[in-house]
Amino acid sequence: MANKRDIQTLLDKVEKVTVQKNLDLSSGEDLSIGVMNLISIEEHLFYTSQKTKDRKYLDLLDEIRRMRTELLKEIIKDYEGEVWCISKHLLAASMRVMEVGTKELKKGNKDKAWGLFDKSYKLYSLFWGLNLGVVKIPNPNSKIQNEKVSYIDEKSEEKSTSSVFSKLGALVQKAIDCCRE
């Protein structure tokens, strides 16, 4: 369980990053949802092109992809290695899992829907944790098996792996308020 000190540490780091990178997190959240939908449009255009065998959909797909790339650059300011691609896939996975959750909700499976929504939110929170620099990605060359995604508590210089998703969820709830104007 995330304690107040852990959450405050994360919030302090987010504030520092947002000032340094000149980010408006509430606009970033709105934009990230828009990017999720652009990814979905790309997928639908791909499948439509294949189902209809009409290449005009590829032109639309390319146009949407360029727009999505341009908008994602507004959120993802700094990245190394595969972080850009990981970020895109985290948003896509979050959106798809959320859509499956809404379908389960429609069927009346509230518990299953809740579990899917929880997973979707964890993926979304990981996207923000990764792009705000509060998540450390495990080294793929590490000798340690099953190394967990973690964040570094800079104040105590301790590595924390306990429930990183709950800490990130708290971070998103407190730092990214879509209702702020």
What does this structure look like?
The structure is a single chain. With 181 residues, the chain is mainly alpha-helical. The chain has one domain. Helices cover 69% and strands 3% of the residues. The chain contains 6 helices and 2 strands; from the N terminus they run αααααββα. The chain has a two-stranded antiparallel sheet. A hairpin with a 4-residue loop joins β1 (151-153) and β2. α2 packs antiparallel against α3 (56-75) and α2 packs across α4. The two termini are 31 Å apart.
- The figure for the number of domains is 1
The whole-angstrom Rg is 18 Å
Beta content:
under 5%
Which structural class fits the helix and strand makeup?
mainly alpha
User: H/E element string?
Assistant: HHHHHEEH
End-to-end gap = 31 Å
DSSP summary: helix tally:
6
Please outline the major beta sheet. Answer: 2 strands, antiparallel
Strand order of the largest sheet: 1-2
